[in-house]
Design a protein that fits this description.
globular, alpha/beta, 28% strand, 29% helix, 4-stranded antiparallel beta sheet, Rossmann fold, 249 residues, 6-stranded mixed beta sheet, single chain
Length: 249
């Protein structure tokens, strides 16, 4: 047998901590063609939390321990520019490329601009992007996620489209029934973000308590000239509190 023809492809995964990433990782692991053995996550070092989602570093580390994956952290300042973000990411990718990684997995579903950005960033390294959930039906994806036994909780949401009551809720049929009809069931348009804490790729569940809900405003991205009337956008965050030995931070 030609071993080179059957050699699996060394792959790392762009890990957001949420449900889409978990489902995409599940499919890549089961495919057999890709040897996924590392996760990569960006962290805001000023707040010591995962960028965008606001998950505490402690829970991120407990999550990857429960998944039994090593983690590469891209650590960013409080308000990084795109230049700083790209430079830090390129440093991490350069190291991964030197270690023989040829592929990277993502949980994206529909966003063409984001997919193009990822492919453009990794093309100079010869790293191929993998999108196992790409253009699948959102309702089918979230039904599959639940049917497989995955569990996730909403940790951040866009206050323009959802009210604070959705923050901290577990993703289940009741949550889906309560979503307004204009909201993507997977939150693919940035409506909400999740923390996945159990499922078939986990060796054990990640335990936590749900703390206070916090509201924060950020500069609205894009053309600021067209956003003069409302230059900011608000997000509700549900602070997840680590339990037991992981409750120090």
């Amino acid at each position: 047998m030609d071993r080179t023809a059957t050699k699996v492809k060394k792959t790392y995964f762009n890990w957001s901590t949420g449900k889409d990433a978990a489902l995409a990782l599940y499919h890549l692991k089961n495919k057999g063609t890709y040897h996924v053995d590392r996760l990569l996550t960006t962290l805001n070092t000023h707040h010591d939390r995962v960028t965008m989602h606001g998950l505490r570093r402690t829970l991120l580390l407990e999550q990857v321990r429960a998944l039994e994956f090593p983690l590469t952290l891209v650590e960013l300042p409080e308000e990084p520019t795109m230049e700083v973000y790209n430079a830090q990411l390129e440093c991490a990718v350069n190291q991964l490329h030197s270690e023989g990684y040829t592929h990277c997995g993502f949980g994206d579903i529909f966003l063409e601009d984001l997919r193009n950005y990822r492919e453009t960033q990794l093309r100079p390294y010869g790293i191929q992007c993998l999108f196992p959930l790409w253009q699948r039906n959102s309702r089918e994806l979230i039904a599959e996620f639940l049917d497989l036994g995955f569990k996730a909780v909403v940790i951040a949401l866009n206050s323009d489209v959802l009210d604070a009551s959705f923050a901290g809720r577990e993703i289940d049929k009741y949550f889906l029934n309560d979503l307004p009809s204009n909201i993507d069931p997977c939150g693919e348009n940035g409506e909400f973000h999740t923390f996945c804490f159990d499922g078939p790729i986990f060796k054990r569940p990640v335990t936590f308590d749900i703390g206070e809900k916090v509201y924060k405003e950020y500069k609205r991205p894009g053309d600021q000239e067209n956003n003069k009337a409302d230059p900011s956008m608000g997000f509700w965050f549900a602070d997840l509190i680590p339990l037991g030995k992981n409750a120090q931070n």
